[in-house]
């Protein structure tokens, strides 16, 4: 139905090949399936489903209130409309890491990341985070690794320890996470080039950099991160922030002006929307029923 050619297994193989290419993978967050289609069209390497974005979209703060059902359903909706690999934030693993991995792998996800905060977690760029012990995190990572069926399904370990225990202890934790089976490490809330460089020199795994806006990390160009030896860069909340700012501005303008004539140029056209959702491709399914034509819809 979505004209997606690649099977989940193919997307995982693609992701593996991209990781081995020595080119950094650029991965924006998709807050809905339509955004995932746009991410693919523009030419990015993968799609990301942020736990914080998921919470925000439901009207919640990012403090561990979402469920496996919430996240898996949205992740499935996003992954099925794109040929790109999809990486999903599973927060602290929900109630069962085994069930979470089995569910998301069956839903066509390529990789997940799990973090070392307590269940009532918070955004990785806020203060006063609380961690679980290294031993408990190792148990979670091993449970995730043992639950996966496809060898190309990736388990990413995120550590929030830098702001709690310091950079050196975070690195020590991450070394243990690699030994437990995590192939990719996500060191959260690093401050600047010096810290990114130190982590790279200390760890042997693939590394993920989080370039979220308004946070603790300096926003670096993807080429700078590639030169520092990072393999993936996330822009997790960017699309939601862009959308919500424009939605808010537009709604306020309509409320004040009484019409939308002054903000038409800020809107995606009907023609562009129809192109993005492949309206005319559906004609190939049954021309007696599907006979759409986007001509005249500018």
Overview of the molecule:
The protein has 298 residues and is an alpha/beta fold. It folds into 2 domains: 8-236, TIM Barrel (Alpha-Beta Barrel), CATH 3.20.20; 244-280, no CATH class. Helix content is 42%, strand content 12%. The chain has 12 helices and 8 strands. An 8-stranded parallel sheet has the order 1-8-7-6-5-4-3-2, sandwiched between helices. Helix 5 (97-106) links the parallel strand 3 and strand 4. Helix 5 packs parallel to helix 6 (134-147).
Looking at the structure, what is the overall shape? globular
Q: Estimate what percentage of residues fall within beta strands.
A: 5-15%
End-to-end distance: 25 Å
What is Rg? 20 Å
Write the layout of secondary structure elements.
Blueprint: H1 8-19, E1 25-28, H2 33-42, E2 47-49, H3 51-57, H4 68-79, E3 86-89, H5 97-106, E4 111-115, H6 134-147, E5 154-159, H7 162-165, H8 167-179, E6 184-187, H9 193-202, E7 206-210, H10 222-227, E8 232-235, H11 238-257, H12 270-276
Parallel strand pairs: 1-8, 2-3, 3-4, 4-5, 5-6, 6-7, 7-8
Helix pairs in contact: 5-6
